[in-house]
Design goal:
452 residues; mainly beta; eight-stranded antiparallel beta sheet; elongated
């Protein structure tokens, strides 16, 4: 069960739960400085604190022996943030975890030795080497940069953790304005979450490249999360916590299309969205929601592996064989019983799908309502209703593939990059620079494990 008391000088709420003694502190931000919420504003169930131009609130609710739900929020006349900090004083064998970001000190000593005194491929939670940009006793990240939005502290007794929703809609501003929330870990025994975030102490831009801290602040927003206390399981308890959070967020797929329809949609996306006719290559696309919502070509994907363009080669080749035969001449696809459409025979003896109340097919639009897909002159898919007395152009699989770089061509390029003198392939199947080096990416060779 849970019991509360207060620790005067440090302005902390003390919670005894499931064998853990947790100190919980709440802070608000003013001019990038964290200020503790006064003790007299805290109660057993949270806090309610007002300044002349802002109000900060937090509410806690027990959810069984191992979980406590919380909500915190603010309304202010100027941009601000809010922080929930949890500490486990007096425990042994501390080990911080922010999934995919922090695992203990991220093997700081091993990194130092492997890199011959060169610190800084990743953030290191350590007091050692304060001269290095990526060595710090406290790290804060955007919550959506973690594999799961959780900050945990493992110890000999078990594992405690705090989760947070990665985004909070900011009320009172234009639609689609969201705060990005944060996770943090601090030596020796503190961890928690923030409403609004800052990359602290720096932004981890790229491997050993730091950048100025970025952040997100607002004037009216709230967020929910959970405090976990799992005793007796040691570090492995973090797996249980991650699974619980995963179940809260995971949306299981509900199939509404046949496998053929899905494959055709994938081919259309490759040919009409990812293919850039100006460069003759497939590209990543980018936009910047919410201000720039149009996807534009960003970077040609020409690597032979990983997430490179060669990953597209196989489905492009197979689409020629799997989709080249008209659907009405292929065997019927067997669907799970619950997903099968109800079928009946029409007067002419042909199979029809179940009709909705308005007489239209439940899986397909009628011909007059269904937008026809076509490829424009520059190879991009468009949707348009046919002009009067002029049917829209519907391209076959072969016609679509003829307008783009085919999978067979991509494979030929890869094979053409084989180097007999080394026995290796060039890792780019198309140049991104001048000379032979233009076919070398070098991504992995930058890592310490590849250095000799």
């Amino acid at each position: 069960m849970c019991a509360h008391q207060y620790k005067g000088a440090d302005i902390a709420m003390i919670i005894h739960k499931n064998g853990f003694t947790m100190e919980i502190k709440l802070y608000y931000s003013r001019n990038e400085i964290w200020i503790p919420v006064p003790e007299e504003c805290c109660t057993e169930t949270g806090c309610d604190f007002r300044t002349k131009d802002a109000r900060y609130q937090a509410v806690f609710e027990e959810k069984g022996e191992e979980e406590t739900a919380f909500r915190m929020g603010f309304e202010a006349a100027c941009d601000t943030r809010m922080k929930l900090e949890v500490s486990l004083p007096g425990e042994e064998d501390y080990y911080h975890v922010i999934p995919c970001n922090i695992y203990g000190d991220n093997h700081a000593e091993e990194v130092r030795n492997a890199h011959r005194m060169r610190i800084g491929e990743f953030p290191l939670l350590t007091r050692e080497h304060p001269e290095a940009a990526f060595c710090s006793p406290c790290w804060e990240f955007r919550a959506d940069r973690a594999a799961m939005p959780v900050s945990a502290l493992c110890c000999k007794k078990g594992t405690a953790a705090v989760s947070v929703e990665p985004y909070s809609e900011e009320e009172g501003r234009e639609d689609g304005t969201y705060l990005k929330n944060g996770l943090f870990a601090a030596l020796p025994d503190s961890f928690g979450v923030t409403l609004g975030y800052t990359n602290d102490p720096v932004t981890f831009l790229n491997r050993s490249v730091p950048a100025a801290a970025t952040g997100s602040r607002g004037r009216k927003a709230s967020v929910t999360g959970r405090i976990y206390t799992l005793a007796g399981k040691g570090r492995p308890a973090i797996h249980d916590i991650v699974r619980r959070e995963y179940e809260k967020r995971h949306v299981r797929p509900s199939f509404r299309k046949t496998f053929r329809q899905a494959a055709e949609a994938m081919l259309d996306a490759f040919c009409g969205l990812n293919y850039d006719p100006d460069t003759g290559e497939y590209t990543n696309r980018k936009c910047r929601p919410f201000k720039e919502q149009e996807l534009k070509p960003w970077r040609n994907v020409v690597e032979i592996g990983w997430t490179g363009g060669a990953i597209l080669a196989y489905p492009l080749v197979m689409s020629r064989y799997l989709l080249g035969v008209p659907e009405d001449s292929k065997p019927m696809q067997v669907l799970p019983e619950e997903d099968k459409p109800t079928q009946a025979l029409s007067e002419d003896g042909k199979s029809t799908r179940e009709l909705s109340e308005d007489g239209k097919s439940m899986q397909e639009l009628s011909e007059e309502d269904e937008p026809m897909q076509e490829l424009s002159g520059d190879g991009k898919l468009t949707q348009a209703l046919p002009e009067e007395n002029k049917p829209a152009l519907v391209l076959s699989v072969e016609e679509k593939l003829a307008r783009v770089l085919s999978g067979e061509e991509m494979i030929d390029r890869i094979v053409g990059g084989y180097r007999e003198e080394s026995g290796f392939f060039l890792d780019l199947y198309a140049p991104v620079g001048e000379g032979l080096s233009g076919r070398l990416n070098g991504w992995w060779t930058y890592y310490g494990l590849c250095r000799t």
